[in-house]
């Protein structure tokens, strides 16, 4: 049976600034993209030109019947040089917040979504002598424009940030979460400290952070291995949110752990464009796991699928939302669902993987709303999570 949700439930979509805005020239990732012989196959370039076309994108979201938009403030735009705050950038993001509120759309604002100013990385980053203080200073500069924002995400997926840092030192083979080495623990602890410092700067604003939930499943006989694997890569970051106002759950697929680490997916399993197992049950498992570990409200801040087949996008999302409905029926405190993503965008080195509810022409920036988006909007208007298929 369909599961009703309260009128306050957030039905929305998400983006991150570097992936959609374009020309984030003062950021660390822009510098990497544009290195001679860059390890990234493609550049972000103009991206989706969301920096200039955000009004059009908000109109699309509102007209679909969605009531929430998660977007990011780009630190490298706000503070392109150390200690120099751009009033123009702050005004831009305040206009976006006001644009949401004027359209009846709840803004969910992320302060750090993977990218940092290039000067921050050159100065030692999170583990630099003043890394945490630098981040707190940025949050302090942003705080005055956040009035009226009911959900503030301090840092997106700190566990992935720490694991990617470890990968750079251990030459792990790929960026699939389960294949990564344990997080660089110094960076993990610095990120936790930075999160708490940011929450102190935000004061009375409701804040939390998001975790990349990897839905670790234990192969028979590997239960203790899976618990150890999950603690370093996920659970320590969940535990750090115990005093937060909410926690963001972000789930896409699962990772099966054997005695020696991650096991490959069944060769017969369906795969998404980026090679992940098609596993919509990841969301329900992630929400239930998080609820058991962290006694705070849950906001699903990312969930979606990389696919060129929009019928598959609807199939995946419908099954994921049905699982979310089962969790809600069992009393899990879920306050909303934000689909990843609103737009087909730059997926950290490649344009090949399309997660969006809306297609974007790379040459003209023309937006085309996909049928899955219209289906999702109708679901939001009805106010029911779908029943189990």
UniProtKB/TrEMBL annotation:
One of its GO terms (cellular component) is cytosol. The keyword Hydrolase applies. The keyword Hydrolase applies. Gene3D superfamilies: Glycosidases. Keywords: Glycosidase, Hydrolase. GO terms for molecular function: beta-glucosidase activity. SUPFAM superfamilies: (Trans)glycosidases. InterPro entries: GH, Glyco_hydro_1. GO terms for biological process: carbohydrate catabolic process. Belongs to the glycosyl hydrolase 1 family. This is Family 1 glycosylhydrolase. It comes from Actinoplanes aureus. The lineage of its organism: Bacteria, Bacillati, Actinomycetota, Actinomycetes, Micromonosporales.
